[in-house]
Prior knowledge:
The structure is a homodimer.
Chain A (H helix, E strand, L loop, with lengths): L1 H12 L1 H12 L11 H17 L3 E5 L6 E6 L8 E7 L19 E5 L3 E5 L7 H18 L5 E7 L9 H7 L1 H4 L3 E4 L11 E6 L1 E10 L5 E2 H4 L6 H10 L22 H8 L5 H6 L14 H6 L3 E10 L8 E2 L2 E10 L5 H14 L6 E10 L2 E2 L5 H13 L5 E5 L4 H10 L2 E5 L14 E3 H17 L1
Parallel strand pairs in A: 3-6, 3-7, 7-17, 8-16
Antiparallel strand pairs in A: 1-2, 2-6, 4-5, 5-18, 8-15, 8-17, 9-13, 9-14, 10-12, 11-13
Helix pairs in contact in A: 1-4, 1-15, 2-4, 4-15, 5-14, 13-15
Organism (chains A, B): Allorhizobium borbori
GO biological process, one term (chains A, B): proteolysis
GO molecular function (chains A, B): metal ion binding; peptidase activity
Amino acid sequence: MTDLSALLDHADTNLDASLERLFALLRIPSISTDPAYKPECRKAAEWLTTRLIELGFEASVRDTAGHPMVVAHHAGATADAPHVLFYGHYDVQPVDPIDLWTRDPFDPSIAEIAGGRKVITGRGSSDDKGQLMTFVEACAAYKAVTGSLPVKVTILFEGEEESGSPSLKPFLDAHAAELKADYALVCDTGMWDGETPAIAATLRGLVGEEFVVTAADRDLHSGMFGGAAANPIHIVADICAGLHDETGRVTLDDFYEGVEETPSNIKDSWAKLGRDAESFLGEVGLSIPSGEKGRSVLELTWARPTAEVNGIIGGYTGQGFKTVIPGQASAKVSFRLVGQQNPAKVRESFRAYVRSKIPADCSVEFHEHGASPAIHLGYDSPVLQKAKIALSDEWPKPAIVVGMGGSIPIVGDFQKTLGMESLMVGFGLADDRIHSPNEKYELQSFHKGIRSWIRILAAL
Amino acid sequence: MTDLSALLDHADTNLDASLERLFALLRIPSISTDPAYKPECRKAAEWLTTRLIELGFEASVRDTAGHPMVVAHHAGATADAPHVLFYGHYDVQPVDPIDLWTRDPFDPSIAEIAGGRKVITGRGSSDDKGQLMTFVEACAAYKAVTGSLPVKVTILFEGEEESGSPSLKPFLDAHAAELKADYALVCDTGMWDGETPAIAATLRGLVGEEFVVTAADRDLHSGMFGGAAANPIHIVADICAGLHDETGRVTLDDFYEGVEETPSNIKDSWAKLGRDAESFLGEVGLSIPSGEKGRSVLELTWARPTAEVNGIIGGYTGQGFKTVIPGQASAKVSFRLVGQQNPAKVRESFRAYVRSKIPADCSVEFHEHGASPAIHLGYDSPVLQKAKIALSDEWPKPAIVVGMGGSIPIVGDFQKTLGMESLMVGFGLADDRIHSPNEKYELQSFHKGIRSWIRILAAL
């Protein structure tokens, strides 16, 4: 344990240098979903590879059909130490609407916000560059203080997490032997609050679908054709409006197949967290839960499946007005899955529903945007217990075990392809505005995040 | 009548010069709804003013709060001749989606299309620059052959017809004495078919509304908040989907107040036109009437009110996918009115309906985009009868009296503000693609349109 305090001291005294490196990574606009930023994604992968080589890793950029992976290996100090695979993603979400940012999203800075909290600003500061760099900087501390790492470490950084991870499954399949470890460490989740670290034990799955409805073969004048010609906006709106019934339940056939009720003792433990609708939604200017009636917001976001329209467009949407009946309209819809829901079946049920709503003289086209089942790690895993103690030593309050509403498909893929459990630990906060304008990451999350990984690596 | 054949001959032999002038006007991208094109709108007004001065008019560009008007006066050859006010608009619709145009919309040309028909291509070729120039060129023929005009003519060209005509009513109010004539000639309508001219006797009114729903104060991650936070896309879709019931009727309270059933003899005359759903909708790739059940397409588009969503947008609509619950979503909705429907009441009923659908923790904002009541001219007006004969002399088939689905608010304003009836004659065809990519105007419409006005002016 003497080593541990030297390591933690090193993280403290070298924080400025750690921040400088994070800023360099944040300045690269690695937006994976937009083909215009393809060279920037590669640049982020190359930057990380160079850094990992400096830390003694054998690291390289690996090409895929999409954006490249970064794979790195470090043998660690002793041959019989466990072998961990650390996962993070270097790609980020688009920045629109850009006019709502108060600072260039790719010009990171340290800012002070309400309550005197210091934050790191910029796209990717929390999701996921800031998070993955907490681990890289923990490795840097070990390298500087001990010359090596306490365990055998493989690192996998992905560049397509924000765009459905199309290359990930093939890459894992092709390099299963190289990537297989005793377990994975995944840093893409959040804390319970600024003082309480959290380990995620459940993760919702995701099905992404886009559909385009075509009616007339051209845009029509609504005076000349209005009242007689099919309006694809009406069809798309009708489809979206019909996804939920009055009680907030999703109406698709067999949608709830595989969904289990959360055990009452788990629900009780969540109820004790004191997170009610007002506090949960109040942070974003809302107050009334919008989903299934009679369930708490934690249950709605951690343990219940959803259908959400993430984008809709049709007709004239610029300034002013245009009396047009467009030829096409479209929407992007995602489903969050829990328990044993089957992504392929959900997709098929959705498509059948949409097709049933298309008039005989119109047509519909579907585009698939990713699929992953929900996963549920054991509450009693030993790795989880060790990490819980290490995190509780670092932070003001003891670590808790929670559910996660978002999808981290990699965790399902690690389980399915590599037969490997994942430990999900992260230091994001609910108000980090990930995927939104003015994303930030607490300076404390970054600093104590580095210290947390130092402790977890020591405990393992 | 010797004069008439000399005038018609002049129109024939000078067609190329007439086309050159039309092309010069079509080259000016006078898109009124987009503030970026404000200087171009003025340029179009100035071009027309210059041309009218050449023809002996006392003409000037008149400033308004928006785009300018063109007003021109010509005393005519004899003091006791009738006084007509000719109306057209020099502004055009936006050109998006620009990638569907096969040629620059502001680089007009003569093209040959299916069946050997020659057409004038470009935005505004049919709506309304090509149409208004038929009248200007008819005046040019009179000026060249007779040195004057057979009647007293006032011309009013507007530059905001495609964006709700905000300045028109104040302008008519302020210049009522100057603009008042015995009746108006309005050239912004179409033919029945390529051989049959038409005079419009009814016109639907229009109410334009835009509403913006705000839920959370930022864009949210659908994993973190999905199932708990209100999704404004769902709210907007629900509102749009609820505008019609299963029979295609509009659901707004009191919406059908003032709507009268079309007399059966009128419906019979329309039935004889042989315009069924398949022929009407087949031109644009459709076949099934989408509006109120049990009514013909002519009744649906000429004599029934509608609600159409002309634009909808919310969330991520770019390439790829983004699992976002947006803070806002919005739609643009227009209502076509008939009979005695009151635009103000329709707007209020719509807003009350929308407000009733907004959850207590969300909000809605409305933007008004124009309002005009429906109008119905007398079938037995003497001016209409004279024009019917003149048009029947020019074209292969006799002129017919029809209804119009689109709104021409000016006709209502002439009636209300200036106590003046309007004769609506135009030479557009249903497949002119007005408001759409690849707008065109038949060369024959332009040529025989000029000849038609020469005949109508002679008949008056």
